[in-house]
Amino acid sequence: MTLHIKISHSENGGFTAACPSLPGCWSRGQTREEARRKIGEAILGYVASVNNFVPDNLMNRLIEQ
Fold this sequence. Notes:
alpha+beta, four-stranded mixed β-sheet
């Protein structure tokens, strides 16, 4: 499973991150790195709640667009 994420500069400062293939899965951070880390955590939670498990190495399969 490979998931694409989008990280963009927020109008209010900081960064917004989203995973378009997982509806409603988004996060924010003060830095790009923080936004990437937080969207990773959100994706893990989303996948775990839908599938009841998290595939191995999911965090290594995130591709920033």
